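[User]
Protein folding is very new to me. Any chance you could explain this protein sequence and its structure tokens? I have pasted everything here:
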Amino acid sequence: MPESPGEAMTEPSDPAGLPAQQPPPPLPPPPPQPGPGPYAAQFGYAPVPVNNNLGWAIGGILVCWPFGIPSLIKSLAVNSLWAQGQFNQAQLAADEAKKWGKIGIIVGASAYGLLILAYVVFFIVYAVLIGSLVATTQ
């Protein structure tokens, strides 16, 4: 029992004579989550849209257009397939676009490398022939 009217009661198990602590107030509920977007799957959220690999397609067209055209066609089909809800087909089209783009860049870069090598060999042979002709005429 308190000895004076202003003294607070303490728990008998509290040795320091401090008042008992109150539990913290409950946390407010979390804010509502945004609803599913226009491409929502049936049971939850749709996965993130796949990369259409348009960069590989453009690179393939700039370096070797015969391989860049199929890459561009496939990469442009990715977004429409995704919008139709055909997620697996969209991923396959993105993979095909990347494959054809890489093939185009590799083939084109190899062809340009061989062309540069052919020019170097041509000028070396030309210089040797001109040098031998100048040496024989003197």
Observations:
- Residues 24 and 30 are 17 Å apart (CA to CA).
- The chain has a mean pLDDT of 83.
- The chain is about 60% helix and 0% strand.
- The longest helix spans residues 87-137.
